[in-house]
Amino acid sequence: MKFIKPIGGEFWFTPEIFNKNSKNFKNIKATFLSGGQSALRAVLNDLEIGKGDIILMPNHLCPTILYSLHEKNIKYIFYKINKDLSIDLKSLEEKISNKNIKAIYIINYFGFYHNRKTIEFLKKMREKYNFKIIEDAVQMLWFKNNNFIGDYVFNSYRKFVPIDGSILLSKNNRIYKETKDKYYELINKGRSEKKLYIDYEIGNEENYLNTFKEAEKFYYKRKEAYGMNIISKKLLSSLDIEYIKKKRQENYKYLYEKIKKIEFIETIFDINKINDNIPLGFPVYIKNNNRDKIRKLLMNNKIYCPIHWNINNEIGKNILTIPIDQRYDFKDMDRVIFSFLKSSN
């Protein structure tokens, strides 16, 4: 059987993403953590939330974000996210003015900042009502404070590369102990299995997919905030962020010009919004409630498009993320386009 390179899914190690001269963590003052869940737990530990306090959460988010709030019995209320993934400011203002708000949780979707109007509104409301802003920059690749407004800002490197870790920016930098648990063992085993399959056709997809699935189970069994592993820190410090940025931006722009011509696809972030951003993927809406059908047809061609996120709202029912990361080139993007066109027949 002819080998077909899978597009999407968990990352595997490739030498191109590293530059031994990089020192990404040089002069960075932050709390170094094992991943996004640990970062959020660290934020909640620092906030010291009282019995009557409430956190405002966007109504479009990864459901696993709420796990940490449930663990601490923290009350939360949802505010509305618009179809273009901007914040519905009217919805947010209504919630702020009527409740005892301790913090507002915002998400920078797919590597893009919120617009200037939203940023100024959030700053104004924070000054008036004295709440904290938790800025979820998990879908962005960064090492230093760029244009963030959050009192707490955190990321998750495994969304972009095959390395676990997160940095949390805040006024209070703390040290958390490392852990090498079953998740750590399994996730790296899965990455090795996938590399052997992709590069040498050793093993099969089922092997590494099962390993990743098992790893994920152990990831969500964690109940504490853990520090960044020393090996992960060294690898992340050596990432060639300019190479990763260049590849992702090139693939995004190339795909945009072709994908916008397909009738049943609606793009979300215009090409002129890329600027200096590093996109997580290429998010689109599939029209006519055909998202799941199209996604299945793509999977048959070994193109694995994740859903961010599969929840019961207008966004969650139709959104699909096309992989455009540093593992792929224009030839791979053409394969994606061809598969979309083929699925429409």
Description:
Belongs to the DegT/DnrJ/EryC1 family. InterPro entries: DegT/StrS_aminotransferase, PyrdxlP-dep_Trfase, PyrdxlP-dep_Trfase_major, PyrdxlP-dep_Trfase_small. Keywords: Pyridoxal phosphate. With 345 residues, the chain is of the alpha/beta class. It has 3 domains: 21-170, 3-Layer(aba) Sandwich (Aspartate Aminotransferase, domain 2), CATH 3.40.640; 182-221; 240-344, Aspartate Aminotransferase, domain 1. Helices cover 39% and strands 13% of the residues. The chain contains 11 helices and 10 strands. A 7-stranded mixed sheet has the order 1-7-6-5-4-2-3, with helices on both faces. Strand 2 (54-58), helix 2 and strand 3 (75-79) form a beta-alpha-beta unit. Helix 3 (89-98) runs parallel beside helix 4 and helix 5 runs antiparallel to helix 6. The longest helix is centred in the middle third of the chain and has 19 residues, at 182-200. It is globular and about 60 Å long. The mean pLDDT is 95.
DSSP strand content: 5-15%
Mean pLDDT: 95
Overall morphology? globular
- State the CATH topology of the largest domain: Aspartate Aminotransferase, domain 2
How far apart the termini lie comes to 26 Å
Unreliable stretches: none
Question: What proportion of the residues is helical, as a percent range?
Answer: 25-40%
What is the N-to-C succession of helices and strands? EHEHEHEHEEEHHHHEEHHEH
Number of domains: 3
Which structural class do you get from the secondary structure elements? Answer: alpha/beta
If you compute it from the alpha carbons, what radius of gyration comes out, rounded to the nearest whole angstrom?
20 Å
What do we call the CATH homologous superfamily of the largest domain? Type I PLP-dependent aspartate aminotransferase-like (Major domain)
Quaternary state of this entry equals: single chain
Please identify the top-level CATH class of the largest domain: Alpha Beta
Q: What count of helical segments does DSSP give?
A: 11
